[in-house]
Amino acid sequence: MARIIIDKDLCTGCGSCISACLYDALELNDDGVAVVDADKCNICRACVSECPFEAISVEGAQNIKDDKDDYHGIWVYAEQWDGKLHDVAFELLTEARQLSADLGEDLSAVLIGHNVKSDAAELNKFGANNIYLFDDSTLAIPNEETYAYLMADLITKYKPAVVLYGATAFGRSLAPRIAAKLNTGLTADCTFLSIDKERKLLQQTRPAFGGNVMATILCPEHRPQMATVRPKVFKKEALSSPEKCNVIIETVNLNDFEPKSHIIEVVGFQNKELRVEDAEIVVAGGAGFACQEDFALTKELADLLGGCVGASRAAVDAGYASHPNQVGQTGKVIAPKIYIACGIAGAIQHLVGMENSDFIIAINNDPDASIFQIADIGIVGDVKVVLPKLIEKIKSHKAKQLAV
Ligand SMILES: Cc1cc2nc3c(=O)[nH]c(=O)nc-3n(C[C@H](O)[C@H](O)[C@H](O)COP(=O)(O)OP(=O)(O)OC[C@H]3O[C@@H](n4cnc5c(N)ncnc54)[C@H](O)[C@@H]3O)c2cc1C
User: Fold this and answer.
1) Can you list the positions of beta strands (E) in 162-297?
2) pTM of the model
């Protein structure tokens, strides 16, 4: 169990730690030396970095401070299923190109699976200088436990400064296991990443306190610095002329590893319907609809446009749409070509899910609704009036086209 230790000889009683502590866990004792209340302390380490006299340390936690300068480069875990790379791997590599340039260090990808060698060329197109490859029949079905074991070993061997993962169902299960094995930090669901060039630290920004503030999180004492990012937060962009990359083939040695779970069978996703995260056009509805029957207008318009229905959380809570269609902080992050927001106010928790859309059309009866601030076209009006008109117009336009 970790605890904060204050060196009485080094502490000058300056009080910096007291003002840095968010939990009121520190005070000066009668001798003018800082003391910590263990019941209140969350071991957040704010006092450790704030103390100008290096009088505060954490006992009981592995501290790799001594060798952190040995960690270099940025890695992206390239998730694949059945040999098909997940788009989030390309999105992360695209974003990490700038991070590695700012850090002045290599960008690498890690690929684990069976018969995945051909995927290495794809990763190279997105800027990976090195690709670490585990290719073995025992890895055909991705198992977080086995993959975490291999990743932790690989990280210990090559010491990357930063490792990024997609916040997919698999990535969300994999990354914390690796963080726990390596006793390092992990920032989940980042929406922005950058490099503090002076301190060579990854700045990991994500919504906090219900999305009301954006928190930038650092991992200054442990390595590697690790973050997950949800699909579609970053755009993917291949390089026109990528440099040649090194493919480093790693031996899969699982002799000393006994996983607690064995996957017997993987059942494919049966629903063949277009998913909101894959749709190029999304017609999303919010609490501006008075009932389910009215909300059905979004489906009618989406079907006409070959798109998919999205929803705000208020619409999901009202039972108008199901959770897989929810867009936002606790729903999907999407980046369609066209996003039509109908009766949606534009709360920050909704915007983080759709603000990367190429073109945003908003329909709202309140001219001051926040959604208009990010809309390319804003229509002030009642959804029950505007949507039927829009649907009629599109229908008659399609009929005319068919007649020609
Ligand atoms: C931790 C946390 C996570 C969250 N995650 C999400 C998330 O993932 N996704 C999400 O969407 N929200 C999320 N929320 C909720 C979010 O804060 C908002 O409450 C929600 O987005 C509001 O949905 P809404 O805009 O549909 O409803 P409202 O805020 O009720 O807005 C309805 C809008 O419709 C307009 N309107 C009303 N009648 C009409 C009409 N007849 N015609 C046209 N316009 C009309 C109103 O002017 C208003 O702007 C989260 C909140 C928290 C705290």
Assistant:
1) 162-166, 186-190, 192-196, 201-208, 213-217, 225-229, 246-249, 281-285
2) 0.75
